[in-house]
Amino acid sequence: MAASRSDNLAQIIREAVAKGYQIEPKAFDLMRQISESVDLDVLINEVIRQKGEDRTIRVEDIERLVKKEEKEVVKEIICKIEETPNFKILSNITKLKTVPGTTGYQHLFSSRYRKLLNLIKKRVDSSNLHTISEVSAERSTRVAGLVYSKSIRRGSATIVLEDETGRVEATAFDPSVVKSIQEVPLDSLVVATISSSKKNIFVVESINLPDIPEHIPNTSKRRIYAALTSDLHVGSKFFLKDAFQAFIKWLNRREDEVAAHLRYLLICGDAIDGVGVYPNQDKELEIADVIKQITELTKLLKLIPSYIEIFICPGNHEPVRQAQPQPPISGSFAEPLTKLPNIHLLSNPAWLEVEGVKILMYHGRSLEDILATTAGLSVERPALAMKSLLKARHLAPVYGRRTPILPAEEDLLVIDEIPDIFQSGHVHILDSERYRGCLLLNTGTWQMQTSYQLDMGIVPTPAILPVVDLSTLQVLTIDFSKQERKQQDLERTHLE
Ligand code: D5M
Ligand code: FE
Ligand code: ZN
User: Fold this and answer.
1) How confident is the model at residue 6 (pLDDT cuts 50, 70, 90)?
2) CA atoms within 13 A on the CB side of 341
3) 271 lines ligand 1 (CB under 6 A)
């Protein structure tokens, strides 16, 4: 049987070629794959009959003419032929050399200092850099130091900088320098020029973060979409299962051009709600067992077409170490998920390259600390807090607040490369910002407002999915919270 089918296919191709037609390789591939379920003889004759000047038989010609009841199968095959995934996991932290206790933190901070100093030297004029012990009243001195503390007053700002040689306190009066001090995150590295005033106090003349240069982002050659999301909280009574299922249905129907060319789904932490994460959480759980939550998550993700590659990094609700960097979900917790070949479990943070586009995924726990310690930022615009992280070139600069950091030999939370897309979640508010060519996206949530968030005054934006066109890095959003769905250009809605 099989032999006669392939003979038949060869015969059809010979006939088409004899009539002066060429068959595009992808179309050939498609013909081969549908030869079992479609009457190719009739189909190709019809294609040829309808062809005009163009004598190449293409995938579109075949797709247009297959019978209605065969369209679904053919569409799925076309997706696979046309868009084999092209991704690389660049950094996935599975093992980390930890050093216990105070020594560990000393190592960590000296690693942070060295790594950030190397970055800042590329960006800021770092000639004549001195140590803090060399600051003197005689001349103006350039130093690199970690921000130990800062206090902002009306018309001035005082900062204490620290390096391995000591600390220095200096005050800024120039309004633009005062503003810069307001914006620098605590425990981040800065280069400052410090001089002495007549009143014998040190004055900050300038202050700079490592920052990023103007960046030309990488884009994919072909039009292909990635859905970036986070904070599903499967297992919570507040998880919007219906809306998430509407998203899955939309993916499967492939009715619009975005759904048809969507090949990646990135889940940036808090995929499940976990157990014992906050006091009295059990009262708000639909599923009170972590494995059962993961099984439910797997059930949902299994409904997503298998040609979509899914990447999941942990957040603060996942059953992994809370100190950052966090390893991927593993062991028995990972088991249900790893049964699906299109699921990739990543660390938090993780770097990946998708269709040539470099993406940094970080759940975003430290956003709480940045928001709490930096004037001028608010929870409604988490992408601006992400911008602060990017400028500081560190994912969790603020030490000793809510973000637990692992004491280790190397500080892996330094942002050593420039991402094309920087994704975070955690605050449950969809927001985007472009900074020097880099797209910053906080990807919202699928969880309704919880009682805790109500008390905190956090108003989430659930079930609105941002989708990135990887060929342009434009973002559109699809609102699954309503029956009537509307696609919108995310940045345009900001401006309205
Ligand atoms: O976090 C959901 C939201 O709640 C996010 O905006 C942060 C905020 N949140 C969570 N935990 C805390 C604590 N401990 N203090 C202040 N704000 C918090 P999720 O990680 O989904 O629970
Ligand atoms: Fe969350
Ligand atoms: Zn979170």
Assistant:
1) low
2) 3
3) no
Mode of pairing for the β-strands spanning 262-268 and 309-313: parallel
Whether 427 is in the pocket of ligand 1, judged by its Cβ within 6 Å, is: yes
Amino acid at 115: K
If you write DSSP's letter for every residue of 300-343 in order, what string do you get? HHHTS-TTSEEEEE--TTSSS-SSBSBPPP-HHHHHHHHTSTTE
| CA neighbor of 314 nearest in space, from 463, 464, 93 | 93
Inter-CA distances, 325 with 94, 351, 364, 384, Å: 9, 12, 11, 22
Q: How far is it, in rounded angstroms, from Cα 366 to Cα 405? A: 10
Which ligand 1 atom lies nearest to the CA of residue 460?
Answer: 6
Query: What is the distance in A from the centroid of ligand 3 to the CA of 57?
Result: 51
> What does the pLDDT average to over 443-447?
98
- Going by alpha carbons, the residue nearest to atom 13 of ligand 1 is 402
Q: How far apart are the CA of 448 and the centre of ligand 2, in A?
A: 11
Q: What is the mean pLDDT of the chain?
A: 92
Residue 383: DSSP 8-state: H
**Closest-lying ligand 1 atom to the alpha carbon of residue 315:** 20
Q: pTM score, two decimals? A: 0.86
Q: What is the pLDDT of residues 109-148, one digit of tens each?
A: 999 999 999 999 988 777 889 999 999 988 999 999 999 9
Residue type, 271: A
Q: Ligand 1: does its nearest atom lie under 6 Å from the Cβ of 231? A: yes
Question: Which regions of 217-374 does DSSP assign to beta strands (E)?
Answer: 225-229, 262-268, 309-313, 343-345, 350-354, 357-361
Cα of 483 vs centre of ligand 2, distance in Å, is 24
Q: 365: Cβ below 6 Å to ligand 1?
A: no
- pLDDT digits 0-9 by tens, 72-109: 888 878 877 766 789 999 999 998 888 998 999 999 99
**Whether the predicted pLDDT of 448 surpasses 50:** yes
Instruction: Give the span between the Cα atoms of 463 and 429, in whole angstroms.
Output: 10
Bridge partner list, 360 = 351, 422
The residues near 334 (Cβ < 8 Å, ≥ 6 apart) are 328, 345
pLDDT over 90 at 51, yes or no: no
- For residue 368 the two structure tokens come to 């709480």
State if residue 270 touches ligand 1 by the CB under 6 angstroms criterion.
yes
Q: For the segment 357-398, what is each residue's pLDDT rounded down to a tens digit?
A: 999 999 999 999 999 999 889 999 999 999 999 999 999 999
Does the Cβ of 450 fall within 6 Å of ligand 1? no
Q: Which residue has a Cα nearest atom 12 of ligand 1?
A: 368
Please enumerate in sequence order all residues whose Cβ is within 8 A of that of 121, keeping only pairs 6 or more positions apart, or say none.
129
- Tokens at 81, concatenated: 């032929």
